[in-house]
Amino acid sequence: MALLEVRDLHAGIEDCEILRGLDLTVNAGEVHAIMGPNGSGKSTLSHIISGKPGYRVSTGRILFKDEDLLAMEADERAAKGVFLAFQYPVEIPGVTTMNFLRAALNAQRGARAQKEFSTPDFLKRVREVAKSLNIPEGVLKRGLNVGFSGGEKKRNEILQMALLEPSLCILDEIDSGLDIDALRIVADGINALRSPERAMIVITHYRRLLDYIEPDVVHVMSKGQVRKSGGKELALELEARGYAQFEGAA
């Protein structure tokens, strides 16, 4: 079943068109990797799907569970099950990770007309999930991302994803700035969240992440369009030949 359908999407910032007729279909249970050079529109696509302000969609449509995603505000999309893990998670001094997670989870439940978690139930839940991802409880008491290493920030994004249980997870260069040990830990957390009901879009420049996260489909973006799709062998081809072949085609 198609969870996400992007059709003939033209979009950008002000008068600068970045996406130029992009098409993409992601089915439930699938992991799609999107690769491409800087400026190809990968992050723009993730921001538009998640509802980040500042982008203009001129034509095209995005359907999520057969609903018009572009008609929803960012918080509505999150409540429907869209999650974006940021390339550069922000630091929020004065707000502990625990309080942030509780506010996010209860806001989601409130939007879905569900009862908020009590403090004991929330603490039990977050500790269980953190333990499953090998995240020390001390991290939960620190300011959100304040003083965190790159690996800690990305693992915190995976913790949020595990707690919110989205239907569509968009991971925007989750491997950026990670050493090999942190990359393995983050990949293990992502793999633990794979589900027949959940789809993931993994945006990356490099094949190394795909050594740990086995994608169902690999797409190559160039100049605002998906130029080629295939299996993991496509990532190997890119590593050997680079993106120049697709830049020329564009």
Topology:
Layout: E1 2-13, E2 16-27, E3 31-35, H1 42-50, E4 56-64, E5 67-68, H2 74-80, E6 82-85, E7 92-96, H3 97-111, H4 119-132, H5 137-140, E8 143-144, H6 150-164, E9 168-172, H7 180-192, E10 199-203, E11 217-222, E12 225-230, H8 232-241, H9 244-249
Parallel strand pairs: 3-10, 3-11, 6-9, 9-10
Antiparallel strand pairs: 1-2, 1-4, 4-5, 7-8, 11-12
Helix pairs in contact: 6-7
Account of the 3D structure:
- The chain has a domain at 2-93 and 168-249: Rossmann fold (3-Layer(aba) Sandwich).
- It has a 6-stranded mixed β-sheet with strand order 6-9-10-3-11-12, with helices on both faces.
- A hairpin with a 2-residue loop joins strand 1 and strand 2.
- The chain has helices spanning 42-50, 74-80, 97-111, 119-132, 137-140, 150-164, 180-192, 232-241, 244-249, and strands at residues 2-13, 16-27, 31-35, 56-64, 67-68, 82-85, 92-96, 143-144, 168-172, 199-203, 217-222, 225-230.
- Helices cover 37% and strands 29% of the residues.
Quickly list its features.
29% strand; 12 strands; alpha/beta; single chain; 250 residues; four-stranded antiparallel sheet; globular
Distance between the termini: 30 Å
What letter string, H or E per element, gives the SSE order? EEEHEEHEEHHHEHEHEEEHH
**Proportion of beta-strand residues:** 25-35%
Tell me the name of the CATH homologous superfamily of the domain at 2-93 and 168-249: P-loop containing nucleotide triphosphate hydrolases
Strand order of the largest sheet: 6-9-10-3-11-12
Q: What is the helix content?
A: 25-40%
Number of helices: 9
Instruction: Assign the CATH class of the domain at 2-93 and 168-249.
Output: Alpha Beta
Average per-residue pLDDT, rounded, comes to 91
Rounded to an integer, what's the Rg over CA atoms?
18 Å
Largest sheet: 6 strands, mixed
Shape by Cα distribution:
globular
CATH architecture of the domain at 2-93 and 168-249: 3-Layer(aba) Sandwich
